[in-house]
Amino acid sequence: MKSVLVTGVGGIVGQGILRNIRSLNQEVALHGTDVRQVSAGNHLCDSVHVLPYAYDPGYVPAVANLVRVLAVDLVIPSTDYEAYFLARHASEIDAAVAASPAEVSAICLDKYKTHEAFQQRGLRFADSMLPSAYHPRHPRVIVKPREGRGSRDIHVDPVNPQAFDDTFVIQQYLEGPELTTTFYVTRSGRLHGAITMERELEAGSTSRCEVTTTHDREIHTLIDRMLEHFPFRGSCNLQSRVTATGVVPFEVNCRISGTNSIRSQLGFPDVAYTIDEYLNDREPAMPRVNGGCAIRVTHDVVYPELRLDQIRDRHDDFRIF
Fold first, then answer.
1. 8-state DSSP, 147
2. CA dist 300 to 108, 238, 304, 317, 320, Å?
3. Cα gap 183→192, rounded to integer Å
4. Which long-range contacts (CB under 8 A, 24 or more apart) does 163-167 make?
5. Of 54, 105, 175, 242, whose CB is crowded by the most CB atoms within 10 A?
6. 8 Å CB contact between 28 and 35
7. What is the pTM of this model?
């Protein structure tokens, strides 16, 4: 039996990855990690292990040890930091890592670096500047952490943008519908396909979304140009808005994104593509994107007669309601 390690199983991304892998009905041992022993992802894992945050010096050695102990064949990171650090130290981990090269994930981890890299190569991106160099040039701005924090600590039209330090970035506020595009690049560097959804967010996560093909030509041209300059690999996510001048990206994520559970039901199962290539060493099936929409709901994982400190994994007695 092959073995897969999914990181960050307490988050929406990690839980979606776990559900997708379970739905494939393959003989796979599925292990999870998180910074806490008990999270919403435990009931989907054969075992769960506590790790420090990815930027902790002990993170990579801890992952490498788990890979050895659990005989892991594939590690799938679910957060931006983990994608970067695992890619950077891939030679220290005796398993495949489903992530873009560190040179790319380092750029995408930092929204200001992404702006600079795109600008240097003539690629569209939301105009961005550091607070220390701020001067007004847009009617509206948004201030956010340069490095990903799950849509937290975001400030729209703050009174004094330059009051923030340079761990933040000031971006032009883009008016228009928000799009989330997932594209998958094979290990050989070929664009396998893409899916775009118009979405609404609540608390930083997609709450409602609908497949749209209206902007496919413009988005696919942008992705093609991105691939000319950067060696993206696997599943990646492009966030943008439809403005009066066209589609303008404002963030790129070098990892599987949070709507992976929705995409798999609408013809673009990028987690399955990842398993095909990185675990089973075979060509992924072709995308069959169709129309459709999704609305996120909340369910509860209930453990009768158990305390929180007794919860371990999917072998516990639980029910979903």
1. B
2. 34, 30, 12, 14, 6
3. 7
4. 163/131, 164/131, 165/131, 165/132, 166/130, 166/131, 166/132
5. 105
6. no
7. 0.95
Q: What is the DSSP string of 48-112?
A: EEE---TTSTTHHHHHHHHHHHHT-SEEE--SHHHHHHHHHTGGGSSSEE-S--HHHHHHHHBHH
> What does pLDDT average to in each consecutive run of 10 residues of the chain (321 residues)?
97 98 97 97 98 97 98 98 97 97 97 98 97 95 86 89 96 97 98 98 91 97 98 98 97 97 98 98 96 96 97 98 97
Q: Any residues with CB less than 8 A from the CB of 286 and at least 6 apart, and which?
A: 192, 193
State the burial class of residue 123 (Cβ atoms within 10 Å of its Cβ: 0-12, 13-18, 19+): middle
Tokens of 171: 């971006």
Question: How many CB atoms sit inside 10 A of residue 247's CB?
Answer: 23
Query: Tokens 């992705």 label which residue?
Result: 223
Number of neighbouring beta carbons within 10 Å of residue 291:
10
Q: Which helix (H) or strand (E) holds 170?
A: strand 168-172
